[in-house]
Design goal:
Largest sheet: 4 strands, antiparallel
Number of helices: 0
Shape: globular
Helix content: under 10%
Oligomer: single chain
CATH class: Mainly Beta
Order of helices and strands: EEEEEEE
Length: 89
Amino acid sequence: MAYTGTVLKRDVFGSTRITILTITADAASGAFDSGLSRVIGCAMSPVSVGTAGFKVQINQNSAATALNGSIRISSAASGDGFTLVCYGV
């Protein structure tokens, strides 16, 4: 299964690209494409979550293998929602 990601805004701040996304989990772990070539960092705000201790890993796919531009979330519950601000190139 995959997570559902919706891009709210894409912008540029200096030489850094910024993508703001809303994410909805439909499984315990999953990954999605940020739209960036490489993620430098991200800030996450839980919107509606039923679990604690979930993890966000940048530049990894759902199999925890390196993949630039992807973001992996694990230890979440189906229906958990997040807002992510991703910084990258």
